[in-house]
Amino acid sequence: MFYELKRGRVGFITFQELQDDYVMYGFPEQTVQECQGNPYNFRSNTYVVADLMFMVLDLIDLLNPFGEKARVAFYIRSDLCLAVTIRDENGNVQKLFDRVIKRYETECKGLKQTEPEKVLYHFLDFLILDDTKFLENMELNMSVLETRILKESINPVFINEILAVKKELMYIRNYYEQLIDVGEVLRDNENQMFSEENVKRFVFFTDRANRLKENVRHLEEYTVQLQETHDAMLDYNLNNIMKLLTVITTFFLPLTLIVGWYGMNFSNMPELTWKYGYPGVILFSVLVIVFCIVTFKKHGLL
């Protein structure tokens, strides 16, 4: 599907169509092979030669970052912006491209008022349009998790949640680094295809992607803080347990001394034959415990 522009055309085709027609378009075979590269790592491959700029983008859904990645390639010339959908199981790339086209048709006085690189800029801009809001919501969820760690009893689930968030943020950061690499290539404009005005658009996009990456780094630091908070709460709970055990032990130490003392059974111990010896020891033991309780409370240990 192609649309006429003020200067050249913009189009959206499948990878199969690219394989069939890349010679007709005058695209190097190397670029077609690049489209089928490693599907697991984020790519920022670019191919800049003469009047052609080529790039491959792996795209993710921030709401499900570990889901199936979409992949799209772009061939850009001064008179052409061709998007090639390599993998798009959910149709998100197609929807995004249609969204760009619809914007020009309804808000920008039609496609014949624009250039190929402007269409590419708006495609990239739509990729990160709502990402700031997503990262803000993610930070809010992390603050809720921090509150749970501080208020609730320590649960092994907490550390699993923290590690899951940390892994997700690392994945998103790699995604933004890919977008930054692409933006920098477009910004540098090595083959002088773009006007100064359109180069500024790519500078703006690169700056936004950089800010998003820095936001992600801030959230990664926040996960470290959450881990430290979790560990501090573990230490606090352990200290409380040790404190309780110490208090209990301190209570029984004088009682153990009394038992040991009167357990010697020397013949000249008058308390052994005293009529009130047994209740006297009980009363003395109770007084010792009361004394310990009062002392501990006075010093804030209970």
Question: Can you describe this structure?
Answer:
There is one protein chain. The protein is 62% helix and 12% strand. A hairpin with a 4-residue loop joins strand 1 and strand 2 (9-14). The chain has helices spanning 15-25, 29-34, 92-106, 116-127, 131-151, 156-188, 196-262, 277-298, and strands spanning 2-4, 9-14, 46-49, 52-59, 70-77, 80-87. The longest helix is centred in the C-terminal third of the chain and has 67 residues, at 196-262. The model has no long low-confidence stretch (mean pLDDT 85). The termini are far apart. It is built from 8 helices and 6 strands, in the order ββααββββαααααα. With 302 residues, it is an alpha+beta fold. A 6-stranded mixed beta sheet has the order 1-2-6-5-4-3.
Shape field: rod-shaped
Largest sheet: 6 strands, mixed
List the secondary-structure elements in sequence, H or E. Answer: EEHHEEEEHHHHHH
Task: State Rg.
Answer: 35 Å
The computed structural class is alpha+beta
Work out the strand percent.
5-15%
Number of strands: 6
| Mean pLDDT over all positions | 85
N- and C-termini, Cα separation: 77 Å
Number of helices: 8
Spatial ordering of strands, largest sheet? 1-2-6-5-4-3
- Fraction of residues in helix: 55-70%
